[in-house]
């Protein structure tokens, strides 16, 4: 995946273009947001400073494909998190209670902790990257890795 650049102009959900500053006024009550674009994705990053001293900040990444199609490529989401928040920061995609659901577009949300030492109390404790051979041994399929993703 190609690297992101910070954008001053972005595509709104209706397909028209606007400035990031103007979009922030309309959609985020003027909150400080950054918009990143590459050839495939547009990502809005909004930081939420912690209200508790010494606690890490929360980063919200709102991710959509520029062609407005659905996505769910785990490797792409991981690479977006790595590039825009940090390789050692953790993030989650939340499947909320129906009463808190937001589903208005083919858009995906990652909630990240902006602290390289923070770990969620769930998930795997050790790194394991398996290739095509390991996957085929258990009847699964794995696509090849790009060397820069390992």
How is this structure best summarized?
This protein has helices at residues 20-27, 74-84, 132-137, and strands spanning 5-7, 9-11, 17-19, 33-37, 41-48, 57-65, 91-92, 108-114.
Describe what this molecule looks like in 3D.
With 150 residues, the protein is an alpha+beta fold. It is built from three helices and eight strands; from the N terminus they run E-E-E-H-E-E-E-H-E-E-H. The strands form two sheets. Strands 1-4-5-6-8-7 form a six-stranded antiparallel beta sheet, with helices on both faces. Strands 2-3 form a two-stranded antiparallel ribbon. Strand 5 and strand 6 form a beta hairpin.
Order of helices and strands: EEEHEEEHEEH
Arrangement of strands in the largest sheet: 1-4-5-6-8-7
Low-pLDDT regions: none
Q: Give Rg in angstroms.
A: 17 Å
Q: Which structural category do the helix and sheet elements fall into?
A: alpha+beta
Overall shape: globular
User: Span between N and C termini?
Assistant: 14 Å
Residues in β-strands, percent: 25-35%
Helix content: 10-25%
User: Can you count the beta strands?
Assistant: 8
Contiguous helical run count: 3
**What is the overall pLDDT average?**
90
Q: How does the major sheet shape up?
A: 6 strands, antiparallel
């Amino acid at each position: 995946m190609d690297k992101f650049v910070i954008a001053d102009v972005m595509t709104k959900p209706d397909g028209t273009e606007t400035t990031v500053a103007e979009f922030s006024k309309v959609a985020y009550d003027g909150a400080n947001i950054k918009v990143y674009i590459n050839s495939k994705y547009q990502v809005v990053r909004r930081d939420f400073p912690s209200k508790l001293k010494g606690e890490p900040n929360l980063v919200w990444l709102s991710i959509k494909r520029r062609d407005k199609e659905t996505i769910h490529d785990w490797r792409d989401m991981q690479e977006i998190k790595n590039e825009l928040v940090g390789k050692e920061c953790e993030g989650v995609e939340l499947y909320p209670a129906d009463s808190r659901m937001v589903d208005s577009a083919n858009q995906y949300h990652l909630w990240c902790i902006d602290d390289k030492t923070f770990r969620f109390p769930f998930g795997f404790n050790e790194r394991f990257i398996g290739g095509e051979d390991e996957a085929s041994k258990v009847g699964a399929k794995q696509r090849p890795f790009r060397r820069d993703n390992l």
